[in-house]
Amino acid sequence: MALSYDAKEIPVRMSNRSFHIYKALKAMAKPSVAATIHKIKLECKVLGKQVPLRVSILEFLGSYFNENQSQILKCIQDDSLLQDTIENGDPNPFIIATGNSPASANKFLLIVERNQIYECCDYFTAFAGLFCSFWVFNIEYPRSSQVSLEFIQRAGTLLKSMDQGLRGNEGV
Predict the structure, then answer these.
(1) Can you say whether the dihedral through the CA atoms of 107, 111, 114, 115 is positive or negative?
(2) Taking the CB of the first residue and of the last residue of the chain, which one, N or C, has fewer CB atoms within 10 A?
(3) In 26-98, at which residue ranges do the beta strands (DSSP E only) sit?
(4) Average per-residue pLDDT in the chain?
(5) Is 59 exposed, middle or buried (0-12, 13-18, 19+ CB in 10 A)?
(6) How remote is the C-alpha of 90 from its chain's centroid?
(7) pTM
(8) Taking the CB of residue 172, how many other CB atoms lie within 10 A of it?
């Protein structure tokens, strides 16, 4: 999905879909999903605002599939830890968010093979770049988050074909 749309369209397209995925995951009786929901509610109180569900969808998928997403999304408190995080990071593509969480981060960096590819201030641009990096460089998804990334990839493909099908019927 990230490859098929302009990065500015992704948050709009994801908002409704994320909500449905969130509702499905919330309905599950898994303790890890309940713990994730509790963590995000606490974060909402701390931030004084509602954390966008679409920003936390990767965390929800990780809790549902029992995966650790820290290999593809790392949060650091400030730029003083940046170089150390890059040098000690995995050679696979990953995102560094400067802040306590993706919802409160003010900067996102895409790192590939321990090199900073680009910097942006938007989670979805960084996430689209992450997906593109896996595709362009033909890199396998890391085992720690493989199922979640495969799910997003397949759901994106399905949603794209549904969008194209609906657009094809607009003239009828």
Answers:
(1) negative
(2) C
(3) 73-76, 94-98
(4) 76
(5) buried
(6) 17
(7) 0.70
(8) 4
CA distance 1 to 5: 7
Q: What are 49's two structure tokens? A: 């605002």
Which residues lie closer than 8 Å to 142 by C-beta, 6 or more apart? Answer: 71, 72, 90, 92
94 Cβ partners below 8 Å, 6+ apart? 71, 72, 73, 74, 110, 111, 130
The 10s digit of each residue's pLDDT in 17-43 is 555 666 665 655 577 777 877 777 777
What's the sign of the alpha-carbon dihedral 92, 98, 99, 104?
negative
The rounded average pLDDT for each run of 10 residues, N- to C-terminus, in the chain (172 residues) is 47 55 61 77 72 68 84 85 86 88 85 90 86 89 90 74 57 46
State which amino acid sits at residue 129: G
d(CA 91, CA 22): 31
